[in-house]
Amino acid sequence: MSEIVGALDQGTTSTRFMIFDRGGAVLGAAQQEHRQIFPQPGWVEHDAGEVRERMWAVIESGLSAAGIEGSDLAAVGVTNQRETAVVWDRTTGEPVANAIVWQDMRTDRLCRELQGDEGPDRFRRETGLPIATYFSGPKVRWLLDHRPELQPRAESGELAFGTMDSWVVWQLTGGSRHVTDVTNASRTMLMDLESLAWSEHLCDAVGVPAAVLPVIEPSVGVVGEAGGPLAGAPIAGILGDQQAALFGQTCFDVGDAKNTYGTGCFLLVNTGTELVRSENGLLTTVAYRIGRQPAVYALEGSIAVTGALVQWLRDNLGIIESSAEVEGLAASVPDNGDVYLVPAFSGLFAPHWRSDARGVVVGLTRYATKAHVARAALEATGFQTREVLEAMRADSGAGPAELRVDGGMVANHLLMQFQADVLGVPVVRPQVAETTALGAAYAAGLGVGVWSSPDELRANWGEGGRWVPHMPAADRDRLYARWQQAVERTLGWV
């Protein structure tokens, strides 16, 4: 059997294809960005057809970079931006509208209606989620409400709905498989966390016809065979991107935690087969399911805007020309000058869940410069992560001894040192920073026997960097208290 595994990572801003050997080393990779479409304030869309084109292009380029054919792969894994919703025609395979992205807020009014008198926790017992614009079920309901000609087609099964993993697998299998996995299904607000099945009650309440839903599969196991340039390779793993990063970080023990710094920030802690219900604003979600074994669950803190804030400094304010410049600019001042930037562009996610919040910059004086704003932007990521970690400590009674980190922003040493300082625990980066794609590859390889067990994967993990806290506790607490004051000023704007 081949011991080479591919991973297709369909993310918020780009799609990449990566090829790994049995030791987790990268043999080839390719990546292409796709457009971010903003039809009006608070709306974010992707062209699913464009994503499809990028998918095939990076697969061909990645295989070429590795010097192999698709049939040389033992398996392919898929990982994806999780709550983005796409609806397509089962006959033509074409999307009926742009995909509605997880950051999109157009369902705010619908979500308030769904809350009714019971509030945002109306479905939390079944789903582990608050009723919020973040999740994909209400996005489908919104589309059917605003395109009434689609409603009968949805009810008859002419249309298919899925998160981006479903869209990708449909394309890879030539339309023969309409599937998702338990991790992605757990982000729709339509799946029961205990039964791991679509809930008729939830589908009726949210207003999504069951006929459009994909089949829910385990995260690890063969779900179909790929075509095109991947012909002959089985698709043997599907994981939502944050669960894939948890898997790639080999966080297989209860209490293991990782934080991924991408467009947003997502801190997950493994709770094992126990379904822990948060009392402090975190999400209860499925971490992964290997074959027909019991599902493993996680607590998650979802932060909407972190890396996207650096892009905002670049694209909207123009204070940097490239994202890489932000570290040098921020390091040119010794501290934030009492400037705080709270990027509540899509409201506040965990642990607040306030869709009425909007972004603020506070503490400005004539002393403040663009360097202070850049430093405040980086520190916002550290502060938001502390908020989530404090919630995890409150839910579990303890926090992790160290935090494993991954994603694009871990290359920023100023941010990583501040993160360790403001948390008061070491921050550790793995040798392979792209753990999302690696996790999808691990899942696929497990599904076909390249690796025999999660224990075997642990041997592949290696430390690539470590930051230990140096900030005095009094300074840490003073800065965090000021951050909390700034957060208060975001609330109630809408």
Keywords:
alpha+beta, seven-stranded mixed β-sheet, six-stranded mixed β-sheet, 16 helices
Any overview of this molecule?
Strand 2 (about 15-20) and strand 3 (about 25-35) form a beta hairpin. Helix content is about 35%, strand content about 20%. The strands form seven sheets. It has a seven-stranded mixed sheet with strand order 17-18-16-15-21-22-23. Strands 3-2-1-5-14-13 form a six-stranded mixed sheet, sandwiched between helices. The chain has a two-stranded antiparallel ribbon with strand order 4-7. The model has no long low-confidence stretch (mean pLDDT about 90). The chain has helices spanning about 50-65, 110-115, 125, 135-145, 150-155, 165-170, 180-185, 200-205, 240-250, 305-315, 325-330, 370-395, 415-425, 435-450, 455-460, 475-490; strands at about 5-10, 15-20, 25-35, 45, 75-80, 85-90, 100, 160-165, 180, 190, 195-200, 215, 220-225, 235-240, 255-260, 265-270, 285-290, 295-305, 340, 360, 405, 425-430, 465. With about 500 residues, it is an alpha+beta fold. Helix 9 (about 240-250) packs across helix 14 and helix 12 packs across helix 13. The protein contains 16 helices and 23 strands.
